[in-house]
Design goal:
Layout (H helix, E strand, L loop, with lengths): L2 E7 L6 H9 L7 E7 L5 H6 L6 E5 L4 H11 L4 E4 L5 E2 L3 H11 L5 E10 L2 E3 L28 E3 L1 H6 L10 H10 L5 E12 L8 H12 L6 H21 L2 H14 L4
Parallel strand pairs: 1-2, 1-4, 2-3, 6-9
Antiparallel strand pairs: 4-8, 5-9, 6-7, 6-8
Helix pairs in contact: 6-7, 7-8, 8-9
Length: about 270
């Protein structure tokens, strides 16, 4: 079972080394590590050179994380693909346990793991509604994304049916793809905490209510479906409230047009 690891990075010179080393330190090594430098303008390029042949470095014009991940998928030499964001890290047994999980469950095309959260150097306790999903979990994940990219391992065949990351979405691109995959394939869950997700450093910033704008964009791909329509209506209500508070006319217009299109009640 051969695995290609894909690490997209943009201006993360101070963090990407930690991510790459967490892959190099795996008890069971990856078959290749593909790092996509998405047009960095800091010292990322120089930092990546220090790894030499330990990684396959792909440099591209800045196009966002979805385009970077898609480039990595296209470059991958092996059928199993694992993602790692350049500000996160894997625990030493991550690959070994996830590969063993798939060998024991050969019918599953993809899986994810539990994770720890660190924000500004402090551990963050996860609430009950953050519990990871497994199985036929499409409807369980309509509310928000419960699968982190850095925990995912999947077989290349899922992209043939579900498609790739949507490069038009500035955020929620993972939520969008996972929903499309969940429509077709159940997801496996490795219960162990095998990934640490970091926050508190500079990241792409969107108001929390605006995230629902892009979740709605993802959900529209799954109509007609009464449960999906109900979720869209709920998110539009949140969007409208936030848009009025922040005097965001563009978002208000988006909500109005969508209500008319879907004939949703105010």
């Amino acid at each position: 079972m051969k695995v290609s690891v894909i690490i997209p990075t943009y201006n993360r010179a101070t963090l990407v080394t930690r991510a790459i080393r967490s892959v190099l330190d795996q008890e069971e090594p990856a078959d290749e590590i593909i790092v996509i430098d998405d047009g960095s303008t800091d010292e990322t390029s120089q930092v990546l050179k220090t790894f030499g042949d330990a990684i396959r470095l792909v440099r591209r014009k800045n196009g966002g994380v979805s385009a970077a991940r898609n480039s990595g998928i296209a470059e991958a030499r092996y059928p199993w693909i694992a993602f790692l964001d350049s500000d996160d890290v894997w625990h030493p047994r991550k690959l070994a346990l996830q590969k063993a999980f798939h060998q024991e469950n050969p019918s599953l095309r993809w899986s994810h793991t539990n994770e720890a959260w660190i924000r500004n150097g402090k551990s963050v306790k996860q609430r009950a509604h953050h519990a990871k999903v497994k199985g036929a979990a499409f409807y369980e994940m309509l509310d928000f994304c419960k699968i982190a990219p850095s925990t995912v391992m999947l077989h290349e065949t899922v992209f043939k049916e579900a498609g790739m990351f949507d490069e038009t979405l500035p955020v929620c691109e993972d939520y969008d793809l996972w929903l499309r995959i969940l429509r077709r394939y159940p997801v496996g869950l490795v219960e162990a905490v095998l990934t640490t997700k970091y926050a508190g450093h500079p990241q792409l910033s969107f108001s929390s209510y605006i995230l629902d704008r892009y979740r709605v964009e993802a959900l529209l791909k799954h109509l007609p479906d009464k449960c999906v329509e109900a979720e869209i209506a709920k998110k539009i209500a949140v969007l409208e409230k936030g848009a009025k508070k922040h005097r965001n006319r563009e978002t208000e217009a988006f909500c109005t047009a969508l209500r008319e299109r879907l004939r949703l009640q105010v």
